[in-house]
Amino acid sequence: MRFAKILGALGLATAVLAGGLVSTAPTHAKADALERIAKEKVLRVAVPQDFPPFGSVGTDLKPVGYDIDAATLIAKEMGAKVELVPVTSTNRIPYLTTGKVDLVISSLGKNAEREKVIDFSTAYAPFFNGVFGPDDIKAEKVEDLEGKTVGVTRGSVEDIELSKIVSDKVTVRRYEDNNGTISAFLSGQVQLVATGNVVAAAIFERKPPRLPNMKFLIKNSPCFVGLNKNEGPLLEKVNAIIAKAKDDGSLDGISKKWLHAPLPKDL
Amino acid sequence: MAYSFDFSSLLDYTPVLVDGVATTVGLTAVSTVLGVALGIGGAAARTSTVKPLAIVVGAYVELIRNTPFLVQLFFIFFGLPSLGIRLAEWQAAVLAMVINLGAYSTEIIRAGIEATPKGQIEAGASLGMTGPQIFRYVVLGPALGKIWPALTSQIVIVMLGSSVCSQIAAEELSFAANFIQSRNFRPFEAYFLATALYLALAVALRWAFSLIGRRMFAKGVARA
After folding, report:
1. What is the pLDDT of residues A77-90, one digit of tens each?
2. Could you tell me which of A235, A249, A259 has the C-alpha nearest to residue A73?
3. Rounded-to-integer distance, Cα B44 and Cα B95, Å
4. Are the CB atoms for B177 and B19 separated by under 8 Å?
5. Cβ contact (<8 Å) for B86 and A188?
């Protein structure tokens, strides 16, 4: 009976596939990641490749950026070799939960949905929206903006947040995209800009005559290292390394190198 | 593909829209007056016997008519500050629109001037009129009458082109529509309303110009 043979073969194939899935599935969920790292001396880290200055591909095709430096630092403290796994913002958490990496250091922000799926370390990088401007303009709080012109990208988070807090005496100029906002600031059409610290760092990269120095914070959403659930020892180790790196200034150095700003003290 | 319109979400933004329409009308009014004046001057220069003047104006016309309006606007707003000339967004918008309309209306008015029969100019001269007098009383009136519909269309184009000024944060009608849809996430309604308002403004502008044309050139307005 040919039909029965085909059916049998199909059944066998299904059984093999299912068996394979079952046997590979549970290996990553055990709380032994730190042991494995210590034994194999390899730390696998998901890093961004399309999000400068946190992670981008350099001229020698190697990933470079804040997150790569942070990953290298953590691996070094663990006595392991770092293995960088480039990810996108959509697949960085699946890479972690399916056990392809030990840590996600990929400018990851914390929110309630993500906290259901993975654990977070303490913050390792600043990520915020604020008001930036040259040193000769004094603006320590939102009231200081009165009578001044502030550029912002229309519809962005910082536009919505700034619009909530400024009075009518502040002239807010809204541009189509970040390039318009940056051009308006560089050409002096606006005195200050409200934008992300990453965009401000991108302006610094160009070494313009008018430097966007941090004036005050609008909205803070720092970056955390993502870990799998039930990896207590690894979480403690990562937190200890981050705390040490904050104390000894090595994280501050990474911040100055990539974000052109010192590490905020309250991070 | 059922889309349920919700125009009530635009009500909160009425002041933004009113400001936007007022700015569009204001920009258009100022740049029309200055732009047409520039065009008359340009046409006079281009048709004059002073060759260097005609060449300079010709170069200006070709430069403006062969480059995009957006680039001209960015040149003025983002470029000129490097030379120390910093204009506010409305100043930059008006300047760009005047320069643009000036170039196009130079060509349109020149066509009207060149269509003036030589005999009329000679008749003016034989009455003892000076050159400027001939231009003012004999040439310009009939010339404008002949090209009035074309000039009206060009002014409507400039008014619609003012939508580009939202790119330098001039808060005109397109800026208002962009602003609203970035807040209420209802782009269809916002642009639907903006389209209707632009259409109404354009129809009103044509109507006003045909009225002015009929008053000014009782005998000689060409039919569109």
Report:
1. 999 999 999 998 88
2. A249
3. 21
4. no
5. yes
Residues B11-216, CATH architecture: Orthogonal Bundle (1.10)
**Looking at the domain A128-220, which fold is it?**
D-Maltodextrin-Binding Protein; domain 2 (3.40.190)
pTM: 0.74
Q: Which residue of A has its CA nearest to B185?
A: A155
Q: State the pairing for strand pair A171-175/A149-153.
A: parallel
- Whether residue B167 lies within 8 A of chain A, CB to CB, comes out as yes
Contacts of A176 in chain B (CB under 8 A): 166-167, 178
Pick from B77, B166, B183: CB nearest A189: B77
- Superfamily for the A29-127+222-259 domain: Periplasmic binding protein-like II (3.40.190.10)
Nearest CA in chain A to B183: A155
Domain extents in chain A: 29-127+222-259, 128-220
Q: What ipTM does this complex have?
A: 0.76
- Put simply, whether B189 touches A (Cβ < 8 Å) is no
Strands A42-48 and A103-108: parallel
- Compute the nearest-CA separation of B177 from chain A (Å): 12
Whether A128-220 and A29-127+222-259 are alike in CATH topology: the answer is yes
pLDDT in tens, B143-181: 999 999 999 999 999 999 999 999 999 999 999 999 998
Q: How far apart are CA B224 and CA B218, in angstroms?
A: 15
CB A183 to CB B78 under 8 A?
A: yes
**pLDDT tens digits for range A46-96:** 999 888 899 988 888 889 999 999 999 999 999 999 999 999 888 999 999
**Cα–Cα distance, B149 to A254 (Å, whole number):** 65
Judge: B78–A187 Cβ closer than 8 Å, yes or no: yes
Task: Sketch the domain layout of chain B as residue ranges.
Answer: 11-216
Q: Name every chain A residue with its beta carbon within 8 A of the beta carbon of B168.
A: 175, 180, 184, 189
> How many whole angstroms separate alpha carbon A227 and alpha carbon A74?
13
